[in-house]
Amino acid sequence: MEKKKPIDSLPRRRDLLFASAAFLPMKKLKPPVAKRIPKRIAMHGETRVDDYFWLRGKENPEVIAYLEAENGYTSQIMAPTEALQKKLYDEILGRIQQTDLSVPARIGDFFYYTRTEEGRPYSIYCRKPGSLDGAEQVLLDLNDLAKDEKYLRLGNFSISPDHRMVAYALDTSGDEVYTVFVKEIASGRVLPDRIPNTYYGLEWTNDNQSLVYVTLDEAKRPYRAWRHVLGATSGSLLYEEKDERFHLTLGKARSRRFLYIRLNSAITSEIHYAEAATASEPLKRFAARAENVMYDVEHHGDRFYIRTQDGGRNYRLLRTPVSDISRARWEEVLPHRTAVTIEDVTAFENHLVLIERDNGQLKFRVRELPSGAEHWVEMPEAVYRIGFDHNPEFRTSTLRLQYTSLITPLSVYDYDMAARTRDLKKRQKVLGGYDPANYETHRLQATAPDGVKVPISLVYRKGLKRDGRNPALLYGYGSYGISVDPSFASDRLSLIDRGFVYAIAHIRGGADMGELWHDDGKLKRKKNTFTDFIACAEHLIQEKFTNPKRLAISGRSAGGLLMGAVVNLRPDLFQTVIAGVPFVDVLNTATDPTLPLTVIEYDEWGNSNFKEFFDYIQSYSPYDNVKPASYPNILATAGLNDPRVSYWEPAKWVAKLRTVKKDRNLLLLKTNMAAGHGGSSSRYEKIRETAFEYAFLLHTMGFKG
Q1: Does 553 have pLDDT greater than 50?
Q2: N or C terminus of the chain with fewer C-beta within 10 Å?
């Protein structure tokens, strides 16, 4: 079940430089004008006019020319910041140990790891036989595979059980459609087997003869699982999911005995399984899907453990014999609790490990099997993020875990579950003299309009004066039940060391405080996400950490929807906005079932085929609610090949804002013409993207360097 020395900040000034002044040398530049070709859209007895619908025509040369013109305008406007971008790039890169090595993980008689080399943008996958003193064998060098590509992403990497072959999947456009390849490790020969149109999830059968994989339908929904026998010209279908609300994923039990095919909608799940020896026998259904009940299973010996919402939204833990999975044999191991969510469960030979969220805080619960004795893994800080690292071995008493906080770099520990001791295997190095003792982190609570207390995590340099004059960056997401737990990012030091307060708003729509937190920020309660974020911003101002002319905000994807919604509601509250691949054309997307995620996400946003949801989505959709007002400085980014948030969403949003807004603040669109949702695939290009965004942020907030 189983992300230097301090730089002196500029003197604080009440008369901050605004965008029009900061970019005075370029003020005569005019942005490209998007043609207005109205399209009338009728639904539920209402006709809407979309002036920029034509931007959806990716194959139209005029659309590409318009996006390139926007990129040219952005480059020209940002030209005065090129020295700052270079400075930021050097700062961020200078904190990174470019030649580095992951913590090797033992699988059988081999130690597997990845490493990077200075100057090379991609990871190298390696192993050593016998011990860490063995001779290195390079399994896959992504730098070699990327030589003739503008983009390269590894989606799957799977070693055969006999360790003779590696199967891997590559995406060369950013559209998250992968082709599977198979390589003989000893000879280095890539077999003629090619499997196109695949998605995440790739497993070997235990006999080393076959691969199990997932393919996509025309809307790019993962819906079929196949078995491919090496050397065969086609695969055999294992399962097809016909309900468009569900997507299909696959995995293997940590015991390696069973293969799982998981079917998930936003609120309901179902699991089918088979012996992983050959995956040739018919699949068995574990439990029939029941509306509003998610569940998953973990195998251990003669039992399955079941994490299920049958009996409570925050999950309870059950078990049943492998020989009889009928509900009559299910017995409770841990009950449902209103303040505690069971987030994950994994089994080892003699232990069961759970990740639980207790009033927002993550904890490891370790249960010894079969005695039932339990203990908690202690953590060194009050606010942190934890998770499972790579734990491929089943017969071990060592749990490999990850730990990080806003001031502690990502750390990998081996925890001895029997002795209850831990061994730090690696902590991400931060070059340039980083000392966590120079920084302070804690939590606040903002009060939402309905009285709910919303947590805010903060980090800043010690000695910060709370006089309301500090620059601040507030980050938010708040969708899909995804929790944004506090973690370290060395690039943020380029802001924090310039005097910034960095804050995370743990708003409803995420599951930061449990599953009910998610429920209270979706469907017809989605607006709680936006008002929570505004309450967090107002609280930072009330507590004199910052003021509206010093407050910037950022969010990506559904977090970009958040950005668009809150600037429509309170454009006066923020100075600068960075909206990464923002989901801002919500109503048009929600009414188009041909797009990859629309039907799957009906249970998150609402099914717009019903007027009540259509009206509610229309009431907050950022693109549909742009108004004549003074907006903050805005940078929107897009990926031309993005399958999750289509490039036209930020493009249309920016075009409409330019027509309607009443200010002279900056409004820029930057489209990566060779990537998708995650931006560039090269680690160096990703740093350039961050440096660009930080340069926009600093310059629009009055910083010169």
Answers
A1: yes
A2: C
User: Measured between alpha carbons, how far is 646 from 628 in angstroms, rounded to an integer?
Assistant: 25
**How far apart are alpha carbons 668 and 650 in whole angstroms?**
10
Q: Residue 18: helix, strand or coil by DSSP?
A: coil
CA distance 485 to 506: 8
Domain boundaries, the chain: 19-94+433-700, 100-338
- Judged by DSSP in three states, 571 sits in helix
- φ/ψ of 466, rounded to 5, equals -90, 75
The sign of the torsion formed by the CA atoms of 611, 612, 616, 619 equals: positive
Which residues make beta-bridge pairs with 366? 353, 375
Is pLDDT of 4 > 50? no
Look over the chain and give the mean of its residue pLDDT values, rounded to a whole number. 94
CATH node for 100-338: 2.130.10.120
For residue 579, what are the β-bridge partners? 555, 636
Position 117 scores a pLDDT of 98
Q: What's the burial of 91, exposed, middle or buried (CB within 10 Å: 0-12/13-18/19+)?
A: buried
Q: Is the pLDDT of residue 21 over 70?
A: no
- Helix/strand/coil (H/E/C) assignment for every residue in 653-683: HHHHHHHHCCCCCCEEEEEECCCECCECCCH
Give me the residues paired with residue 153 across strands.
171
> Are residues 8 and 653 in contact, defined by beta-carbon separation less than 8 angstroms?
no
- 19-94+433-700 CATH, one of 3.40.50.1820, 3.30.450.20, 3.40.50.11270, 3.40.30.10: 3.40.50.1820
Between CA 314 and CA 513 the distance in angstroms is 10
The predicted pLDDT at position 101 comes to 97
State which amino acid sits at residue 308. T
Which residues make Cβ contacts (< 8 Å) with residue 367, sequence separation at least 6?
351, 352, 353, 354, 373, 374
Helical segments of 436-579, H only: 493-496, 515-519, 527-542, 558-569
pLDDT of residue 703: 93
Contact residues for 563 (Cβ-Cβ < 8 A; gap 6+): 553, 554, 555, 577, 578, 579, 582, 622
Helices (H) and strands (E) in the chain — how many of each?
Answer: 13, 38
> 28 pLDDT band (50/70/90 cuts)?
low
Question: Region 586-604: what's the mean pLDDT?
Answer: 95
Encode pLDDT of 394-441 as tens digits: 999 999 999 999 999 999 999 999 999 999 999 999 999 999 999 999
Active site residues: 557, 642, 677
